[in-house]
Design a protein that fits this description.
The chain is about 40% helix and about 20% strand. The protein has about 140 residues and is of the alpha/beta class.
Length: about 140
């Protein structure tokens, strides 16, 4: 693959519900098929941190994380990622839209907060604005 066709963004999706990855793969299929994006999946924050530590955070450039997960929640996870790997951008996703959750997401270092069900049109526009190389 030449550098013009190289993967532009590696997204790590972190969610304890395994079927979530299928939904995201479907919505990002054009990026994946065109080789513009790669989507990886972890079922827990601990598993995701282990993956990041193995690559020193050099491979992943965007994390999409659920908030409510067993063990480490999304707020703590993103705080950890932001501290260890400040170059990685993160988005938190939750079914809850309280001011407290928005504040905690901001304090954790999340760049954006999306409510479930995710508005994939809005999410796609946001990612394209952050990573212009994904645009068709």
């Amino acid at each position: 693959m030449d550098k013009d066709n190289a993967v532009k963004i590696h997204i790590l999706l972190v969610d304890d519900e395994e079927d979530t990855v299928v939904i995201f793969e479907y919505h990002f299929k054009h990026w994946i098929r065109e080789g513009k994006a790669r989507l990886s999946f972890s079922t827990s924050a601990d598993e995701a941190i282990k993956s990041l530590d193995e690559s020193n955070g050099n491979d992943i450039i965007l994390i999409l994380s659920d908030v409510n997960m067993p063990g480490m929640d999304g707020f703590e996870f993103i705080t950890t990622v932001t501290t260890k790997y400040p170059h990685i951008k993160s988005i938190l996703i939750s079914a809850y839209s309280t001011p407290e959750y928005y504040d905690k997401a901001d304090q954790a270092g999340a760049k954006k907060y999306f409510i479930k069900p995710v508005d994939f049109e809005e999410l796609t526009k946001y990612i394209e604005s952050e990573f212009g190389a994904l645009k068709a």
